[in-house]
Design brief:
Layout lengths: L6 H17 L2 H9 L6 H9 L18 H14 L5 H13 L4 H13 L4 E4 L4 E2 L2 E10 L6 E6 L2 E6 L5 E6 L8 E10 L4 E4 L2 H36 L1 E2 L2 E2 L4 H30 L4 H26 L11 H13 L4 H12 L2
Parallel strand pairs: 1-4
Antiparallel strand pairs: 2-3, 3-7, 4-5, 5-8, 6-7, 9-10
Helix pairs in contact: 1-4, 4-7, 5-6, 5-7, 7-8, 7-9, 7-10, 8-9, 9-10, 9-11
Length: about 350
């Protein structure tokens, strides 16, 4: 079976890459990273104008009605650009959860807003809901400080809670990756009646999580590929002892070994995205295994390519550290490699 891209998919990839290179360059990324808020208000609308925010939204609601292959293409290019957006949360997990709900007109309006890039909804999985109240603290919630609403998932059921609801406290957190900010969200006995019930199904929720795991794996792969690219470019220019460092055997070995590790992940990504699109039961172990392997490989890849730069590679001034930290974020979100491999093994040997 051929897991290469079709011509339309190649055009989509080239279009997204061109947009990100022109409008979301590393200078813009650095401005967001260095800002106090960590927010770029315009980027979501720009992504919406490009159709990126609506890839998984059906056409009746303003989206492109494409599949996980196309979403993985977008996620990989976003990772390659280190774009300051939680694509896996806002434009994969959120729309898929909402699409699997029973919210009628409200569901449709939310999906239309997401597809246009004007509505930012943050899902919270396994929300602390008990006895009709939302009570507890959730750590590392993406986009929490500027989300329009939280999509609370519990047992497959979904509830939409406005971010400004009384009893909701949001405290920004510092993590390794400043391109994507997270926060601690505390719910102080919020009455569930203050939220809007959207219904939902547990199976749809599980499928949405698998899609988000694929998107995170694609993001990490893009970051690793970009890290290798800029390391090779540096090795072609940097001189040491009056020689280009790319001529040193040790540097050649680093770059060659990283390439050999990273390239096979691409096929695994396409295979897993195809399994999701086909509705295969194998996705229950493919998705966690893909994310575990892709993020492990990406973390090792950016660690090795950072060494090509020597000591400067670990400094704020060198772009390499951005991709190093990007891969670190992807590795931990929605399950670290150890937990995901245990999860996949439990499915395979059940």
């Amino acid at each position: 079976m051929d897991f290469g891209l079709t011509q339309p998919q190649e055009l989509l990839r080239d279009s997204i890459a061109r947009f990100l290179a022109q409008d979301v360059g590393i200078e813009r990324v650095r401005r967001v990273m260095d800002s106090e808020s960590g927010q770029d208000e315009a980027i979501h609308g720009q992504l919406g104008d490009q159709g990126i925010t609506g890839l998984l939204v059906d056409m009746d609601r303003g989206g492109s009605e494409l599949g996980m292959q196309e979403a993985a293409i977008a996620a990989q290019e976003i990772g390659r650009a280190a774009a300051p957006v939680n694509f896996h949360s806002a434009y994969v997990l959120a729309p898929l959860l909402i699409a699997g709900a029973d919210g009628g007109e409200r569901r449709n309006a939310l999906l239309e807003g997401i597809a246009e890039g004007r509505t930012l909804v943050t899902p919270i999985l396994d929300a602390p809901i008990e006895n009709g109240r939302v009570d507890g603290t959730v750590l590392y919630v993406p986009d929490a400080a500027w989300s329009d609403a939280f999509l609370l998932e519990s047992g497959g059921s979904l509830h939409l809670l406005e971010a400004t609801t009384a009893g909701v406290d949001i405290e920004p957190l510092q993590t390794v990756d400043d391109t994507r900010r997270v926060a601690e969200v505390t719910f102080s006995g919020v009455d569930l009646n203050a939220a809007e019930s959207l219904g939902g199904r547990a199976e749809s929720s599980k499928r949405a999580v698998h899609a988000a795991q694929i998107a995170l794996a694609a993001d990490a792969l893009g970051a690793a590929q970009k890290g290798l690219h800029i390391a090779v470019d540096y090795a072609k220019e940097r001189k040491q002892f009056e020689r280009i460092i790319g001529s040193f055997q040790a540097v050649k070995h680093i770059c060659a070994e990283v390439l050999a590790e990273v390239e096979p992940v691409q096929s695994l990504l396409w295979h897993t995205a195809d399994a999701w699109d086909e509705g295969s039961d194998e996705i229950d172990h493919f998705a966690p295994l893909l994310k575990a392997h892709a993020t492990d490989v990406a973390s090792h890849a950016v660690t090795m390519t950072t060494q090509v730069f020597g000591g400067i590679g670990f400094t704020h001034e060198c772009d390499m550290h951005i991709f190093y930290k990007r891969a670190g974020y992807d590795r931990q979100v929605l399950g670290n490699p150890t937990a995901l491999r245990e999860q996949a093994a439990a499915v395979m040997y059940a």
